[in-house]
Each structure stands twice: as structure tokens, then as C-alpha cells.
């Protein structure tokens, strides 16, 4: 196996770990289950569309307050971004929406994103969910469903 393939695998594992570790470290609760098996959808456990919209709005304030992240949004139509992200979070959590925006590689191409930016955004999203009262299990599950998008988001950097 070449060094770079091994390196890539290590990098992917680190990113996946970061998603899980962020939620744990913010709560200090290392023993709670990462996922929660109930009959309800993740969308319902997140609090439905109203809570998802509130989380996205909360995230926007956090982005605006973070000089290292806000620079990427200089030419972005924030209302369209917020609506698109909300529909993606609804879709990915098995809610009644279908994300119809561009694929993640095209949406983020040539931005110059690094793992630092990526992890920062994950931390902001987790903090926004926490502030809006979403339980640890649901937060971790959503982050777990977003984690595989890392590859696509970073593909065309
Ligand atoms: C799993 C991680 C991520 C997800 C799920 C995600 C999701 C999205 C979605 C749904 C859109 C809207 C696409 C559209 O409708 O045009 C978008 C756009 C955008 N994202 Fe991300 N994103 C992620 C990571 C990041 C990171 C790490 C950054 C920078 C720190 C970032 C910055 C942006 C910017 C600036 C836009 C707007 C691009 C434009 O103006 O057209 N994203 N993202």
C-alpha cells in the first residue's frame, strides 16, 4: 500500500473521529450512546423543521462571528444558502424534504477549504444544535450522517 493511500485512510478516520469527538467533548459525556434507537425519525428527534431552521439561523450568527470562516461567504446569497442547508439537513434526517441543490463537490469547489475550516464548521453546527436544545444522541447522529460528505466537500479544493 502506498504511503498516500495509507495517509488518506488515516486522514479520513481522523475526520470521522472529529465529528464524534466534537459532540462528546462539548458535553463531557463520554458514555452516552452515539446513536439512539427509537421508532421516531432523526428529523423528529431534531425537533422538525422549525428547530432545523432555528439551528441554521444560529449557525449563520456563529459563521458571521468567526473571521476564519466568514471570509468564504463574502459573495454568498445567505438566504439561499440557509434555505438550501435547511433542506439538506431535513433530507438527510429523513424529513419530508428533498435536497435539490448542487452536489457537495461542486458547491464547494476551489474555495481553498482545509480540515481546519471543515472542523470549525462542524463545531459551530454542533454548538448551534446544542444551544437550540437538541439532545446529544440526535446531534451525534446528524453529524454522523454528514461525516461521509467530507470526501465530496474536499474533492475539488
Ligand atoms: C459536511 C460539511 C458541509 C455541508 C453539509 C455543507 C452544505 C452546504 C450546502 C447545502 C450548501 C448550499 C449549496 C447551494 O444550494 O448552492 C453549501 C454552500 C456553501 N458552503 Fe458548505 N457545507 C459543508 C462544509 C462547508 C465548509 C467547511 C465551508 C467553509 C468553512 C462551507 C462553506 C460554504 C459556502 C461559502 C457556501 C456557499 C457557496 C456559494 O456562495 O455558492 N461549507 N454548503
Automatic annotation (TrEMBL):
UniProt keyword annotations, A-Z: Heme, Iron, Metal-binding, Transport
Xref: SUPFAM superfamilies: Globin-like (SSF46458)
Signal peptide: none
Highest taxon above the source species: Bacteria
Pfam families membership: Bac_globin (PF01152)
Protein name: Group 1 truncated hemoglobin
Organism encoding this protein: Halomonas alkaliantarctica
